[in-house]
Design a protein that fits this description.
Largest sheet: 8 strands, antiparallel, barrel
Order of helices and strands: HEEEEEEEEEH
Distance between the termini: 57 Å
Strand order of the largest sheet: 1-3-4-5-6-7-8-9
Oligomer: single chain
Shape: globular
Organism: Urochloa decumbens
Bound molecules: 2-acetamido-2-deoxy-beta-D-glucopyranose
Number of strands: 9
Radius of gyration: 20 Å
Helix content: 10-25%
Family: Belongs to the plant dirigent protein family.
Subunit structure: Homodimer.
Subcellular location: Secreted, Extracellular space, Apoplast
GO biological process, one term: phenylpropanoid biosynthetic process
Structural class: mainly beta
């Protein structure tokens, strides 16, 4: 019978994967808070720039006006330890966001936090989802590199400071976990705060 053959195939696949993939049931929490400095507008300090103008139509729910369906921005935002932009730089956020609804205030975002200091220097956390202009935005942590390989979780973002209409600061709270390799799990790895202990 087709269905039992399919079930058997799935069971064999699962067994083969269990043999070849070093799966660990242990996960270590990764939590941290950083601040993303967003420089908008057209000045020389601008870090979020229009990459492509979309085909439209105009999405009337977005301000300032004349946002077209498909408009896409690219970002290279400085990330700091505290809301103040003069506080210690800890990384960058690289990514894009696109006006993805013709009528509602919805952007699809994809961004990666690269840490550039401390023991996580060079490691990244990859995030994505939709931005619907809620006061608190939630995005999925969909992966990572370096110390954050296999990361899963979510991230909450909210604007906590506005220097001006073209310079706002987003607080990013990461709630994720990473798999602990068997060798480390056996020796009971300590939990590791991301960048700052809160
Ligand atoms: C901090 O932000 C202010 C206001 O946007 C800006 O004038 C200044 O150049 C920024 N300083 C740094 C170090 O980025
Ligand atoms: C982070 O790593 C880069 C590349 O390895 C290195 O050039 C840089 O000096 C490191 N920064 C810190 C603060 O350790």
């Amino acid at each position: 019978m087709a269905s039992s053959a399919a079930t058997l195939l799935l069971m064999l696949l699962a067994a083969a994967m269990a043999l070849t993939t070093p799966v660990s049931a242990w996960r270590r929490p990764v939590q941290g808070r950083v601040y993303v400095q967003e420089y908008l507008g057209n000045g020389p300090e601008t870090t979020e720039k229009v990459l492509v103008r979309g085909p439209g139509p105009v999405n009337p729910s977005l301000h300032p006006p004349n946002n077209l369906y498909g408009d896409t921005l690219v970002m290279d935002d400085p990330v700091t330890e505290f809301p103040d932009n003069t506080s210690a730089p800890v990384g960058r956020v690289y990514g894009t966001y696109t006006v993805s609804s013709m009528s509602r205030p919805v952007h699809v975002v994809s961004f990666t936090l690269l840490l550039t200091t401390g023991r996580y220097n060079g490691s990244t956390i990859v995030m994505g989802g939709i931005d619907d202009m809620s006061a608190v935005l939630e995005h999925a942590v969909i992966g990572g590199t370096g110390a954050f390989r296999g990361a899963q979780g979510h991230v909450l973002g909210k604007v906590v400071k506005a220097y001006s209409s073209t310079h706002v600061v987003m607080e990013l709270d990461v709630y994720a976990s990473v798999p602990v390799p068997w060798s480390q799990a056996e020796e009971e790895a300590p939990t590791s705060p991301l960048i700052i202990d809160h």
